[in-house]
Amino acid sequence: MNTPVPVVRLKNAWRSSHPWIFQKLVEKPAAKPKPGTIVDVVGVDGEWIGRGFYNGHSRIAVRILETDQAVPVDAGWFSRKIAAAVSLRRDWLKLDGVSDAWRVVHSEGDGLSGLVVDRYGDLVVVEFFAAGMFRHREWIYEALREQFPGCRFHSFADEHVQKQESFDFHGNTTTEAAVITEYGIKFRADPAGAHKTGFFADQRENRQWLSEQVEGKSVLDLCCNTGGFAVYAAACGASEVLGVDIDEDVIAIAKGNAKLNNVRPRFVQADIFPWLRDASNRGEQYDVVILDPAKMTRDREQVIPALKKYLDMNKLALGVVKPGGLFATFSCTGLVAEQEFLDMLRRASYFSGRTIQILKVAGAGPDHPFMAHVQESRYLKAVFCRVV
């Protein structure tokens, strides 16, 4: 006999298709379901709204997963949703012909709020952002095994997520990194030894586009992390490549990635702020400058300070671009809107005394889709400029 699904009632009329319902809109259920319990959500008049995860400890009280009352959220549901996500990447985007590293599930962008999955060869990296996804992880693992037979798993959740969502997870780690290929260029993807889930697959198309501009050019890759842009540039014929990052661990991985491709970019471990000031004082300039810093904040109250930091680093970076050169600048801070980022860049141009001609505005690759009604999944901003 099936166990009845707990019911959560809303306090006010619900006129949104967004999957997040916040605590202030939800009546506290008498049964007090555990964080991540699957519940039915009903409106103030008892009308059925949807089915999803409930968490009385999280700012997001409910994450709606299903809006068809006849469809249960169970192991079969996860199997179908993950199969559909993989089909998009394989059958429509044809990503297997480009790389063996791509995003399998992009949270709300694939109708799986609170779950991110990346694939690196035979290594599948699962990141939990919601107690419900963590609680039902065995269904997720089984659905992924159906799509990637024989795969290895690395699973984790950031500490701040565990605190916000009220669950404890020490991780399920694999022992070996994976070596992946992207447009013929090799990288080591190690989720235990780098930022994010092991490799920045979201920049795939941006790396490819930029690599077509660098032959015979001098290239500076700021906040180079594991060397994605730098290694591409060196492999695609740049005359000189220098990567700078403050993290010595990712510099070591970047050097290993260069070795995998038999190229010899230089890497320097340094804080880019004093390094750029010194480079400017020395009169150094490069044909192509890339600036791809880590996420600045996840706190809405810190967006203005984050924009100030973006302004400062972009001003300095523009100062080392040769006249007529190319400047590629990025932001992966989801709370910073594209228009805010473009306005920051306008001000950086003014304060640095450099005129910029915007050639292209882009974002993450198509394996990072977002729903029109859920803009939170659209986080990466990419702006390619000519400094004239």
- Continuous helix count: 10
Largest sheet: 7 strands, mixed
Cα gyration radius (Å): 23 Å
Counted up, domains total 3
Helical/strand content category: alpha/beta
Question: What's the CATH topology label of the largest domain?
Answer: Rossmann fold
Share of residues in helices: 25-40%
Protein name: RlmI/RlmK family 23S rRNA methyltransferase
GO biological process, one term: rRNA processing
Organism: Xanthomonas arboricola pv. guizotiae
Family: Belongs to the methyltransferase superfamily. RlmI family.
Word description of this protein:
There is one protein chain. The chain has a seven-stranded mixed sheet, sandwiched between helices. Strands 1-3-4-5-2 form a five-stranded mixed sheet. Strands 6-7-8-9 form a four-stranded mixed sheet. The protein is globular and about 70 Å long. It has three domains: 7-66, PUA domain (Archaeosine Trna-guanine Transglycosylase, Chain: A, domain 4, Roll); 75-165, RNA methyltransferase domain (HRMD) like (Transcription Regulator spoIIAA, 2-Layer Sandwich); 200-387, 3-Layer(aba) Sandwich (Rossmann fold). With 388 residues, it is of the alpha/beta class. Helix content is 29%, strand content 27%. The mean pLDDT is 95. α1 packs parallel to α3. It has helices at 75-92, 131-135, 137-147, 159-165, 204-211, 228-235, 248-260, 272-281, 303-318, 338-352, and strands at residues 7-9, 20-22, 37-42, 48-54, 60-66, 101-106, 115-120, 123-128, 152-156, 178-182, 185-189, 218-222, 240-245, 266-269, 286-291, 321-331, 356-362, 381-387.
